[in-house]
Amino acid sequence: MGREEAEIDRLPVDLLAYIFGFIISFTDLAQASSVCRKWKEGVKQSLAQRNSMSFAGWKMDDDSTTRLVRLAYNLKELDISRSRWGCQITDNGLYQISLANCIGNLTSISLWGMARITDRGVVQLVSLLQHNKYKL
């Protein structure tokens, strides 16, 4: 007896990406991306299509945040404001974010209440982004 393909496995990657675009939980997206290669590609495509991303309310560190921002090629608004669980973004994370491909598209970056980001980190970010207009 041959193995039959599940109905959801027949969906094209771009449709999976569209569906994953409705998921706002980064934990759920991480779990979906570990189901199979096709779903992982769908999650990547859904992140690439996002215009805005907010980490407010999420416990995020430099590596996790940078990984997600690097996948969001069309990102225009980024909110890494302080969360109730204490966002762990540092100057190094801010620098890594500034190297992402989407950085030229960004029109707004919110850093409100970020205790682990210093003036040095913000100045470094702004100096890398002088040619764009940002609301900090």
From TrEMBL:
Residue stretches making up the F-box domain: 8-41
Signal peptide range in chain numbering: none
Stated name of the protein: F-box domain-containing protein
Organism: Salix koriyanagi
Organismal lineage: Eukaryota, Viridiplantae, Streptophyta, Embryophyta, Tracheophyta
